[in-house]
Design goal:
YefM-like fold, alpha+beta, three-stranded mixed β-sheet, 4 helices
Length: 96
């Protein structure tokens, strides 16, 4: 989440570079004039990749769902059943 800082116009002008650094790190700054808020400066959202945009579109359309959790791949592979060659052996044979 963002943290919020309140700063006067004069203070912002005097220390603009410092405030911009803080904003780049995720902080939101409310600018005040005579003690009243007049603007909020916040970091811009990172542009989505084409893949991210397509995935979010699928979620909005109900074609996919997301639990909100980060994907963690399984630690073990899927055990193979049967006596045939392993996938690695089949790839090596194809390249052969």
């Amino acid at each position: 989440m963002y943290t919020m800082t309140e700063v006067s116009v004069r203070e912002l002008r005097s220390n603009l570079t410092g405030y911009l650094r803080r904003i780049e790190q995720g902080e939101r700054v409310t600018v005040t004039r005579r003690g009243k808020p007049v603007a909020t400066i916040e970091p811009i959202a990172k542009p989505e990749s084409d893949v991210d945009a397509a995935l979010w579109k699928m979620v909005r359309e109900g074609k996919a769902s997301w639990s909100g959790k980060t994907f963690v791949p399984p630690k073990k592979g899927v055990p193979l059943i049967g006596d045939g060659p392993t996938p690695s052996e089949m790839i090596i044979e194809d390249r052969g």
